[in-house]
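Hi all, posting the design record for the shared folder.

TITLE: backbone redesign
STEP: 1 of 1
STRUCTURE INPUT:
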């Protein structure tokens, strides 16, 4: 099983793991570490392409193209979410910039390159117009809903959706993408296959990989994709610093992230076009664009609603002049250290190195703000009698809970007026 797998595709995630270990252990290698991260990232990208092709060959079309499309989209979602959480309100536009850049790179860059390479290699290639039309209809609908309509809504000022609108758009995007996937894999699978190829045939005459080889490639594919996410996250600070130094707009970060994330799929699409499988190239490119919006937007929408709640708590804390003393911050650190199974000193050292002490302070402050809101609320039991919050929870217990960053629980069956 391993003998038939190129050794470099196995070594790539192993090398990436070693580089990540050095990065997490904060070895002082300066620019060398950044260079190693970049090399490991490129190696994992090309290894992921190889393993995705093995899995795709085994499961057949059009299921094979979905494997890499969904995997790449999961990378994009994980990367955007991690950067949004770390960047807070300053990274609020990162998802929009990345999704917009991904669509433009796919439709203009990847598709154009595939057509150019395929035309130069084979002079003439064929594809299913019905399949491409179905993908473009679904893609056009989601693009309008997510990237155009916010400029014309009146509920909130500026090009923004309200919370209810954002939730609706997230659900509609998922439904449209789900309908497309059903059409591609079940309803009208034939229109997404090579011309003249029956749905029960394999487009390649080469022998199928064994179950063992396919399983190994699937495992290594996931390892490579996870490595790409972590390596890209490690490169993010250097990337943002470089963009700021040259004076480029913040949207450039989204373009670079999209280019990194789409690199495995772009390479796979171009290789398919070179092999005279233009339909596979189109399935990869358009499927990735649909997955990029159809899955990224719902995930980011949920995160945006959560981050909006955090901003509201920050506003309450500012209005109430909520402060955090040393004992409350220490209690929070001890609580988090116990969760991770490390000593408080080690936790503080890691937080300082990763620049997270400010986030810990903000979490404690938000918890105290939430506790103050609960204290001021009038809570009644099932019979309509007011409940004394101090008697029920205790003032000190509320403060302890807020210092630990945990929400204060309300008795079951109680209603807030």
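Okay, here is what came back for every position:
SEQUENCE:
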């Amino acid at each position: 099983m391993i003998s038939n797998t190129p050794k470099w595709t196995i070594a790539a995630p192993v090398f990436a793991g070693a580089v990540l270990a050095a990065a997490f252990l904060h070895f002082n290698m300066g620019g060398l570490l950044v260079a190693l991260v970049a090399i490991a990232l490129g190696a994992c990208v090309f290894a992921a392409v190889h393993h995705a092709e093995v899995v795709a060959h085994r499961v057949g079309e059009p299921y094979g193209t979905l494997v890499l499309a969904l995997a790449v989209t999961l990378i994009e979602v994980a990367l955007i979410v991690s950067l949004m959480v770390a960047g807070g309100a300053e990274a609020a536009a990162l998802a929009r910039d990345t999704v917009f850049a991904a669509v433009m790179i796919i439709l203009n860059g990847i598709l154009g390159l595939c057509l150019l390479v395929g035309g130069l290699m084979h002079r003439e290639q064929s594809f299913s117009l019905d399949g491409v039309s179905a993908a473009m209809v679904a893609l056009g609908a989601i693009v309008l809903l997510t990237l155009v309509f916010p400029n014309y809504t009146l509920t909130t000022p500026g090009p923004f959706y309200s919370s209810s609108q954002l939730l609706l758009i997230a659900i509609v995007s998922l439904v449209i993408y789900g309908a497309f996937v059903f059409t591609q894999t079940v309803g009208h699978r034939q229109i997404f296959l090579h011309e003249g190829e029956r749905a029960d045939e394999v487009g390649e005459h080469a022998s199928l990989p064994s179950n063992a080889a396919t399983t190994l490639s699937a495992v290594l594919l996931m390892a490579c994709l996870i490595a790409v996410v972590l390596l890209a996250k490690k490169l993010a600070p250097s990337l943002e610093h470089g963009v700021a130094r040259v004076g480029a707009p913040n949207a450039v970060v989204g373009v670079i992230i999209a280019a990194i994330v789409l690199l495995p799929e772009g390479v796979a699409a171009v290789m398919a076009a070179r092999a005279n499988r233009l339909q596979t190239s189109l399935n990869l490119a358009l499927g990735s664009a649909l997955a990029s919006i159809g899955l990224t937007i719902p995930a980011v929408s949920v995160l945006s609603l959560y981050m909006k709640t955090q901003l509201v708590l920050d506003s309450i804390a500012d209005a109430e002049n909520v402060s955090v003393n040393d004992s409350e911050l220490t209690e929070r650190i001890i609580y988090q250290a116990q969760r991770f199974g490390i000593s408080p000193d080690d936790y503080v050292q890691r937080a300082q190195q990763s620049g997270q002490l400010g986030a810990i302070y903000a979490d404690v402050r938000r918890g105290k703000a939430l506790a103050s809101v609960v204290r001021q609320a009038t809570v009644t039991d099932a019979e309509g009698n007011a409940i004394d919050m101090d008697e029920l929870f205790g003032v000190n217990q509320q403060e302890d809970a807020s210092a630990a960053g945990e929400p204060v629980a309300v008795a079951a069956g109680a209603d807030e007026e």
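COMMENT: The chain has two domains: 7-316, 320-416.
Let me know if anyone wants the other runs.
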